[in-house]
């Protein structure tokens, strides 16, 4: 879960993203009609803190809510949370945190993380597709609104949230003339020469009336214009309208009409199109062609035919094509997917398809773990990010099957690089603990899940569960003779010693782990991290030459294999040594390289560690005010890491030294003012500030009652500041963990 402003567009990108907060997507098609509803909804949002747009599936709730949200301008942005693909109620809080681009490396409950983050912010949260998770969503919204006075929530779903103070905004279908306008706009994308004229207008109006003005139904009908004229559309709709009503006798007429519209489109599909439609319903969110071919091919639909049939579904607007950082991907609208899921169940093939889906994503996770230690590391991070909804479905399927515990343990353990390297510790711990609760029938899978759980818990600063997992892992590894698990257990026990200031024991255990890794021929990112952690233990004991030698070796291995994540931590240790050697310019060069890598991977630990050490280097360069600003940035980030620098005197020493030097240069009042300026600057702006080489104007960040920094005007109120209790090096050990 993320508790940090997102650093950039994605892994491997080097430039900072736009400073405008929020994640609202750019509209890819024209917003047609709904002027009166939009004005009314905008007014409702200004008057009430919780507004819920309700209506039948396909009526345009999501689009109207997104349009109204785009017109709002809260200070801290507009943030969209899409819940339609989420299966578990307990993951709602994680999904909201992820949408807000938060990372939290602690063991704090995700709801508390959200409450802390939103307490002083003014933003609009848009919840879409919550109806299947209404209890969990309503509970969360109730707590957030009660504790975050600057928060407003705009929800879109088929039913109310049921929260006190909720203002309902029922959305009706479009009027005939607006529906016809929508038909014409979308038709022009299919047939560039299409226009409403005296010949086509009556048929178009009648089609829209028969579809009850439901926007999704209109757009589905437009998808048929490549083959049919408006008159033919009307004729075919009339033929099937009474046959394809859905739902029970008590269903709303408009709900029946929506199923009729989709059912009519389904009836017009060829048998292989219907088959692929049903099979694609097992996916959640985006999917790629290779996944579709593996999961959906065979049993009446050859693998080679999937691409052709998928293209036909794209032409009918039943599947959408999207460009993503992970490449071209596809997605079904939730209503269309749900219709296909009903057909898949009716065919009796749902269980087989879910197993195929699980097997594909287990294979994907295995491939990504291997490729994490390669030049494709940024691609792996982007791929995992894109496929996370489907990986969640696969994990849930594994852990819901009577004999699936070992498969779930395998999958949760294999994704260690996602939980640790891509800033998802809290979610990783959720899946690891859930999988380990289910049994111990397959030692190899369980042992891996145990040491990964210990890894995650150490990074969260939660030592007791880490010790328990390591004890079970080491005993199980010795009993079963599993050499890799034994080495990993020793490695993580060494990390515990490192972050709790027992440097001799840390050195002993980490050396033993490295020896075992070498004996079994193990070489990957976490083996290199073991070497970096050993270098930290050596540095803390005063042996900087040995630490440098170890990290130079790591850097060479990383360059040979194209590995970047472990390299970033090696660069940190080398920068520390350069600073200690009186070469701040070299230390800054190394730290900027390290920060750029952490920036791309969303690694909060590495980022805050690097910023802390940059503060100390900045003092050595003669700019104590800038050093204090960087400490303020780090101070804002540390509460999301866990125990401040693990309470370690070794890890805290660089931070304390930096603070002493800066206080001596600036005085207490100005130091506090610069800390406040850094906290207001935020991590995103701070990273851009460092990587651009330009120290941005802090005008407006320093409080009026305090002395401004040179060449800056002071303005604004100073927030209450929590002094950063952590040190850069401290998190270095964490990073090493």
Describe the structure.
The two termini are 18 Å apart. The protein is mainly α and 737 residues long. The longest helix is centred in the C-terminal third of the chain and has 25 residues, at 668-692. Residues 1-18, 239-252 and 704-737 have low confidence and may be disordered. The strands form three sheets. The chain has a five-stranded parallel sheet with strand order 3-5-6-2-7, with helices on both faces. It has a two-stranded antiparallel sheet with strand order 1-4. Helix 12 (289-296) crosses helix 15, helix 19 (425-436) runs antiparallel to helix 20 (443-459) and helix 23 (503-519) runs antiparallel to helix 24. 62% of the residues lie in helices and 6% in strands. The protein has 32 helices and nine strands.
């Amino acid at each position: 879960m993320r508790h940090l402003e997102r650093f950039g567009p994605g892994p491997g990108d080097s430039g900072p993203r736009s400073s405008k907060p929020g994640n609202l997507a750019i509209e890819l098609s024209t917003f047609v009609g709904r002027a009166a509803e939009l004005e009314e909804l905008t007014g409702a949002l200004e008057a009430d803190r919780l507004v819920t747009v309700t209506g039948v599936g396909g009526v345009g709730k999501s689009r109207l809510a997104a349009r109204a949200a785009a017109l709002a301008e809260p200070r801290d942005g507009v943030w969209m949370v899409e819940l339609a693909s989420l299966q578990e109620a307990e993951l709602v809080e994680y999904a909201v945190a992820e949408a807000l681009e938060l990372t939290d490396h602690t063991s704090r409950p995700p709801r508390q993380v959200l409450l802390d983050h939103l307490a002083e912010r003014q933003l609009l949260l848009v919840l879409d597709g919550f109806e299947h998770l209404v209890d969990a969503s309503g509970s969360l919204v109730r707590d957030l609104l009660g504790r975050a006075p600057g928060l407003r929530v705009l929800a879109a779903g088929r039913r109310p949230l049921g929260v006190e103070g909720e203002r309902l905004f029922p959305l009706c279908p479009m009027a005939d003339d607006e529906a016809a306008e929508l038909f014409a706009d979308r038709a022009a994308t299919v047939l560039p020469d299409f226009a409403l004229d005296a010949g086509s207008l009556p048929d178009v109006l009648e089609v829209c009336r028969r579809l009850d003005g439901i926007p999704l139904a209109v757009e589905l009908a437009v998808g048929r214009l490549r083959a049919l004229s408006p008159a033919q559309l009307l004729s075919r709709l009339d033929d099937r309208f009474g046959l394809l009503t859905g739902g029970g006798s008590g269903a709303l007429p408009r709900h029946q009409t929506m199923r009729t519209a989709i059912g009519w489109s389904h009836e017009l599909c060829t048998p292989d199109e219907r088959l692929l439609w049903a099979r694609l319903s097992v996916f959640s969110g985006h999917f790629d062609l290779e996944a579709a071919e593996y999961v959906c091919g065979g049993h009446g639909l050859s693998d080679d035919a999937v691409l052709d049939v998928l293209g036909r579904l794209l032409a009918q607007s039943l599947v959408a094509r999207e460009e993503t950082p992970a490449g071209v991907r596809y997605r079904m609208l939730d209503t269309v997917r749900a219709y296909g899921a009903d057909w898949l169940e009716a065919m009796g093939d749902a269980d087989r398809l879910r197993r195929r889906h699980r097997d594909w994503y287990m294979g994907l996770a295995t491939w990504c773990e291997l490729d994490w230690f390669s030049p494709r590391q940024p691609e792996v991070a982007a791929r995992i990010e894109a496929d996370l909804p489907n990986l969640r479905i696969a994990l849930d399927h594994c852990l819901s099957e009577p004999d699936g515990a070992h498969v779930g343990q395998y999958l949760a353990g294999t994704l260690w690089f996602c939980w640790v390297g891509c800033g998802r510790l809290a979610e990783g711990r959720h899946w690891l603990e859930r999988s380990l609760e289910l049994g111990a029938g397959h030692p190899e899978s369980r042992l891996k899940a145990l040491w990964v759980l210990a890894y995650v818990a150490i990074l969260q600063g939660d030592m007791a569960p880490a010790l328990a997992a390591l004890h079970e892992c080491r005993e199980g590894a010795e009993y079963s003779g599993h050499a890799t698990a034994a080495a990993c257990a020793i490695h993580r026990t060494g990390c515990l010693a490192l972050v709790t200031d027992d440097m001799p024991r840390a050195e002993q255990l980490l050396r033993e782990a490295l020896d075992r890794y070498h004996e079994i021929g193990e070489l990957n990112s976490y083996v290199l991290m073991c070497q970096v952690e050993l270098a930290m233990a050596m540095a803390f004991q005063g042996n900087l030459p040995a630490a440098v030698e170890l990290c130079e070796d790591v850097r060479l291995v990383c360059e040979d294999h194209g590995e970047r994540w472990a390299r970033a931590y090696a660069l940190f240790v080398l920068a520390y040594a350069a600073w200690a050697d009186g070469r701040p310019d070299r230390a800054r060069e190394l730290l900027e390289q390290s920060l750029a890598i952490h920036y791309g991977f969303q690694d909060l630990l590495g980022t805050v560690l690097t910023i802390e050490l940059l503060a100390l280097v900045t003092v050595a360069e003669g700019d104590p005010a800038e050093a204090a600003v960087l400490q303020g940035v780090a101070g804002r980030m540390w509460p999301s890491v866990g125990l401040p620098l693990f309470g370690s005197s070794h890890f805290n020493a660089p931070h304390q030294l930096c603070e002493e030097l800066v206080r001596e240069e600036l005085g207490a009042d100005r130091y506090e003012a610069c800390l406040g300026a850094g906290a207001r600057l935020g991590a995103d702006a701070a990273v851009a500030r460092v990587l651009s080489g330009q120290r941005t104007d802090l005008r407006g960040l320093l409080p009026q009652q305090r002395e401004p920094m040179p060449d800056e005007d002071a303005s604004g109120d100073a927030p209450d500041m929590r002094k950063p209790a952590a040190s850069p090096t401290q998190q270095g050990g964490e990073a090493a963990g």
